[in-house]
Amino acid sequence: MAKGTSSKKEFKMSRLLLLGFGFLGISIVWPLYNAYVPIFLKDFNLSSTAIGFVMTIDNIFAIILLPLLGALSDQTRTRFGRRMPYILIGAPLAALTFSLIPLTRSWHVLWLMMLNIIFMNFFMALFRSPVIALMPDITPPEKRSQANGVINFMGGVGALLAYFGGKPLYDADFGLPFYVGAILMLIACMLVVAFVKEDEKYRVKTGEEGLKFSNVYKKSYLDIKSNMKDVFASKDHSLLMMLLSILFWFIGYNAIETFFTSYAKYRIGISESTGALILGVFSLTFMLFSIPAGFIGAKIGRKKTMTIGLILLFLVILLTLLMGLGIEDKNLLTMVFFIIFAIGGFGWAMINVNSLPTIVDMTTEEKVGGYTGLYYLFSMSANIIAPPLAGLFIDKVSYDTLLILSCVFFGLALITLQFVKRGDVKIKMAQ
Question: pTM (2 decimals)?
Answer without folding.
Answer: 0.75
